[in-house]
């Protein structure tokens, strides 16, 4: 980890804090600083993507000069820099007592990290994996509107319309007035209207008259495209109950399940299939 020197003050404090938080730690090599030094050097390593630890030995002239400029009276002391300016300070026992709490302010939460992964998966074209990550993020913090809206958008994209409707129901006043929520609601309503397409009705009638596996698979695919995954699963499950050796039916059934991460129906139908198999 970098140490404060006359040559690197601007680089490690001002410039670096434009990219991520810099924790500038003033100390002396003495027992009164040992606990804070151990806590900081253990908690903030060079591999930390969000916080940089810079140490300033107060016995050195440059550290003394910076400490005086900041009005520090004693060590150990911790000054947090962000965007080139000091934004927070801890001294003495408060460093160890409030270190994790302070670090959490400058690091993304587990929810944020899951959302970041979800968006990366979506950008890579794996919408199903993205939806699964968004489901995890929403489960971690269902009060987080960003997590809720990203999850809802991905549910609509993967035709999990019942689940999307469930989480978009009963919004708070502020949320209901937001443009993002209104856009999601419009997308959901359009998708729900598509459920009642003439093509789907025709396939339903055709399958009823001639219930072959080929038509069942075609009808199930149309149900999925219309956001009626539960109906598609039930249709295919009835066929598997009659004959578990129907390989294409079983494959399609499992393919549908793989797109339903975060939906309780996924677990329900997996358990029903395993009961049939074992």
UniProtKB/TrEMBL annotation:
Thioredoxin domain location: 5-104
Matching InterPro entries: Thioredoxin-like_sf, Thioredoxin_domain, TPR-like_helical_dom_sf
A single BP term in Gene Ontology: response to stress
Source taxon at top rank: Bacteria
Pfam families in the cross-refs: Thioredoxin (PF00085), TPR_19 (PF14559), TPR_20 (PF14561)
Name of the protein in question: Tetratricopeptide repeat protein
Organism, as annotated: Candidatus Avisuccinivibrio stercorigallinarum
């Amino acid at each position: 980890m970098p140490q404060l020197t006359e040559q690197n003050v601007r680089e490690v404090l001002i410039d670096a804090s434009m990219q991520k938080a810099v924790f500038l730690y003033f100390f002396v090599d003495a027992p009164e600083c040992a606990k804070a030094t151990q806590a900081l050097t253990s908690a903030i390593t060079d591999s930390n993507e969000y916080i940089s630890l810079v140490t300033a030995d107060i016995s050195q002239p440059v550290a003394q000069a910076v400490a005086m400029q900041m009005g520090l009276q004693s060590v150990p002391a911790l000054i947090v820099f962000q965007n080139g300016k000091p934004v927070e300070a801890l001294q003495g026992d408060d460093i160890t007592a409030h270190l994790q709490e302070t670090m959490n302010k400058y690091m993304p939460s587990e929810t944020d990290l899951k959302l970041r992964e979800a968006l990366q998966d979506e950008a890579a074209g794996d919408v199903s994996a993205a939806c699964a990550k968004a489901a995890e993020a929403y489960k971690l913090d269902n009060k987080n509107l960003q997590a809720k809206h990203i999850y809802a958008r991905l549910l609509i994209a993967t035709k999990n319309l019942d689940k999307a409707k469930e989480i978009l129901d009963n919004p708070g006043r502020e949320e209901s007035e937001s443009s993002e929520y209104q856009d999601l609601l419009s997308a959901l309503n359009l998708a729900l209207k598509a459920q009642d397409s003439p093509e789907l009705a025709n396939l339903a009638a055709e399958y009823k008259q001639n219930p072959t596996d080929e038509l069942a698979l075609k009808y199930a695919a149309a149900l999925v495209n219309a956001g009626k995954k539960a109906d598609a699963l039930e249709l295919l499950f009835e066929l598997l109950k009659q004959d578990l050796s129907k390989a294409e039916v079983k494959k399609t059934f499992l393919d549908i399940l793989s797109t339903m991460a975060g939906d309780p129906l996924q677990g329900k139908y997996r358990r029903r299939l395993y009961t049939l198999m074992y």
